[in-house]
Amino acid sequence: MVFHTMKALNTFGFPVLRFNFRGTGLSHGEHDYGNGEVADVRTALDWLDAEIHLPLIFGGFSFGAAVGLRAACPDPRVKALIGVGVPVAPVAADKEEPRVYTYDFLRDCALPKLFVSGTRDQFGPSAKLQELVNSVSEPKKLVLIEGGDHFFEGRLKELREAIETWLKEAICSQPSAVS
């Protein structure tokens, strides 16, 4: 999912930074249940802004979307948001209390927003995701990939096409949206 999101953004000339959150893979630090991870996204946005000097579009998958949307929405350097597999149902990790995600901050977020999910996403049931999208401010778009699960198994082409179509229609056709 992350690779195909990256390729869709690259198609339009947007450079992409992919990173692991604290405590994931070989990264330093410990998982902070979404608090420190918001700071990780802010640090990544700072680095991109300093190094690339181009409009920033945030894209995140699952937990990365949940914390990244929170960090990117109020950032004036960010021009658009993409949430892939946005979790909206409580998720229990091993030996943890279920994670509950809230997105109240999106009600006042005026940035263009794309939400992409599979119709069989166990962490983003379509009805609950539709409720979320209905509650957020315009502009926004929800794309449900028929038969797709949380990881878009067998549906990665449709995921990439959905992102590319939205970028072409909502972002690249309106220069003021990314300048």
Biggest sheet architecture: 4 strands, parallel
End-to-end Cα distance? 27 Å
- CATH topology, by name, is Rossmann fold
**Could you state the oligomeric state of the chains shown?**
single chain
Indicate the radius of gyration in whole angstroms: 15 Å
Listing every helix as H and every strand as E from the N terminus to the C terminus, the arrangement reads HHEHEEHEH
Strand order of the largest sheet: 1-2-3-4
**Strands, total number:** 4
Number of helices: 5
Q: Beta-sheet strand percentage?
A: 5-15%
* Helix and strand composition category: alpha/beta
CATH superfamily: Alpha/Beta hydrolase fold, catalytic domain
Key traits:
179 residues, globular, alpha/beta, Rossmann fold, 14% strand, 5 helices, 4-stranded parallel β-sheet
Write structural notes for this entry.
This protein is of the alpha/beta class and 179 residues long. It has helices at 2-11, 35-52, 63-72, 126-135, 156-172, and strands spanning 56-61, 78-84, 113-118, 140-145. It has a four-stranded parallel sheet with strand order 1-2-3-4, sandwiched between helices. Helix 4 (126-135) links the parallel strand 3 and strand 4 (140-145). Helix 1 packs parallel to helix 5 (156-172) and helix 2 packs across helix 3 (63-72). 35% of the residues are buried.
